[in-house]
Amino acid sequence: MKHPVAASLLALAVATSVAANAQTTDPGDSFLCCNMRTNGSWISDSNYMESGKTMIPFGTPAKFAGFGRYRVNIDIDGKRQSIGNDYSRDLTMDVFAKRYLVKDDPRPKVAAAAPKVRSAIQSARVTKGMTRDQVLIALGWPISSENPHLDAATWKYWLWSFSPFTLHFDANGRLAKIETDAETLIKVWLE
Fold it and tell me: What is the architecture of the domain spanning 109-188?
């Protein structure tokens, strides 16, 4: 038979964990923050560029449709997608959802950018001189398990499981360079 105090403590720990991951505000009608890759119904926060995945462009209208286990469910043109919190579980689901579903359409910001930056963002790549915000729109959020501080001088991303790349920002918060292998460089860097 379980000890009543131990059972109460376990119930409290489970309730606290559920509450920490609960959504507190419905983002409602929103836009995708950034270019996201889907297999048809699942978008991972790693945002891998794997074969068989298609890109959903930044600024796509999206409607919040609830939460699942470590996922934010959304509707895009009447089709269900789930954004999985696979590698950023240190974030509450509320914070996680607000990263990807934004109230302000990012398309006007991109339209006002320099032509080379616009081209990079539209092709889900990066180029020298981009701001952190422009990098986020182009590539999505870097996973928080490897990038706990967004003001850091470097951000690590993954093209897929075996293709990491590191972005280096200068003192003004502009993208200065990228470190990766030659094959990944061709896919993520606009010269």
Answer: 2-Layer Sandwich (3.30)
pTM: 0.85
Residue spans of the domains in the chain: they are: 25-102, 109-188
How far is 87 from 83, CA to CA, in rounded Å?
12
DSSP alpha helix (H) spans, the chain: 4-20, 93-100, 107-111, 115-122, 132-139, 182-188
115-122 and 132-139 helices, crossing angle to 10°: 30
- Within 8 A by CB and 6+ apart from 22, the residues are 67, 92, 93, 94
CA 87 to chain centre: 10
Per-position pLDDT tens, the chain of length 191? 444 444 433 333 333 333 344 444 565 679 999 999 999 999 999 999 887 899 999 999 999 999 999 999 999 999 999 999 999 999 999 999 999 999 999 999 999 999 999 999 999 999 999 999 999 999 999 999 999 999 999 999 999 888 999 999 999 999 999 999 999 999 999 99
